[in-house]
């Protein structure tokens, strides 16, 4: 017997959503970016002062980044509370009309296509900053992988496809807005991948796919599940072999 939720999901037509009309704008985007960078700087500086060289270990860097995200979402909560809006629902964390396994399968397929693209683009096989984090110690690798296939994709979808994309779609139109968001997404991952343009291209294309899914379904929950599927294969390969996944 189907539950009410299953019936709602299956009966919801899959149509291209109308352009987003968020109540926030570019001012709020710049303000939140500044809050995150300041929080990351303070947390990172404090960690170095207390932990010294240990602050560079992978698991401590995950903790530091998580604390900066916590400060960012606290600021977002204040912003949305002041506007009288629910935070996560406003960021698109809603029921979607696509089965979760289908979204995971799309993510797996995107990951496979990305791997082929990296080969076709002749991506240099060099040690990246992300390699160094993963090769630091087994516990760091475990923490990074766990974060990379759980909270990491969810947080990135809330921020990029939930907070940034609606503003750019509203200002520039659907496909330009999604593309610009994806370019930011790809650019912000370059530092982890030694600035390799091939990695930037592949991650940008993946971000565009996540953006389309978020826009078509109207749900960042849907794009987050796809993102989790995209990260799962390379990150699990990392856990078993110590290899570097370029998809974040």
SSE blueprint and pairings:
Elements: H1 4-11, H2 26-51, H3 58-82, H4 87-90, H5 100-120, H6 129-134, H7 138-148, H8 151-172, H9 174-188, H10 197-217, H11 220-241
Helix pairs in contact: 2-3, 3-7, 5-10, 5-11, 7-11, 8-9, 8-10, 8-11, 9-10, 10-11
Counting DSSP E segments of at least 2 residues, the number of strands comes to 0
Low-confidence stretches: 7-19
Describe the biggest sheet? Answer: none
Radius of gyration: 18 Å
The percent range for helix content is: over 70%
Q: What is the average of the pLDDT values?
A: 87
Task: Tell me the series of helices and strands, N- to C-terminal.
Answer: HHHHHHHHHHH
Oligomer: single chain
Shape: globular
Total number of helical segments?
Answer: 11
Q: Structural class from helices and strands?
A: mainly alpha
The percent range for strand residues is: under 5%
Number of domains: 1
User: In whole angstroms, how far apart are the ends?
Assistant: 38 Å
């Amino acid at each position: 017997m189907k539950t009410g939720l299953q019936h709602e999901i299956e009966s919801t037509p899959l149509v291209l959503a109308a352009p987003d009309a968020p109540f926030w704008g570019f001012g709020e985007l710049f303000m939140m970016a500044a809050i995150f960078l300041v929080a990351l700087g303070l947390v990172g500086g404090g960690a170095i002062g207390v932990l010294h060289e240990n602050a560079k270990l992978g698991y401590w860097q995950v903790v530091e980044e998580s604390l900066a995200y916590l400060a960012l979402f606290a600021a977002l909560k204040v912003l949305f509370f002041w506007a009288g809006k629910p935070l996560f629902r406003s960021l698109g964390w809603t029921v979607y009309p696509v089965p979760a396994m289908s979204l995971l399968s799309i993510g797996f397929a995107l990951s496979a296509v990305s791997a082929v693209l990296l080969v076709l683009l002749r991506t240099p096989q060099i040690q990246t900053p992300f390699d160094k984090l993963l090769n630091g110690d087994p516990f760091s690798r475990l923490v990074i992988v766990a974060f990379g296939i759980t909270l990491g994709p969810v947080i990135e979808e809330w921020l990029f496809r939930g907070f940034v994309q609606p503003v750019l779609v509203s200002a520039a139109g659907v496909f330009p807005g999604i593309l610009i968001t994806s370019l930011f997404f790809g650019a912000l991952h370059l530092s982890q991948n030694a600035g390799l343009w091939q990695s930037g291209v592949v991650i940008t294309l993946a971000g565009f796919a996540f953006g389309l899914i978020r826009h078509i379904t109207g749900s960042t929950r849907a794009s987050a599940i796809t993102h989790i599927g995209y990260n799962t294969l390379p990150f699990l390969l990392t856990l078993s072999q110590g290899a570097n996944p370029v998809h974040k």
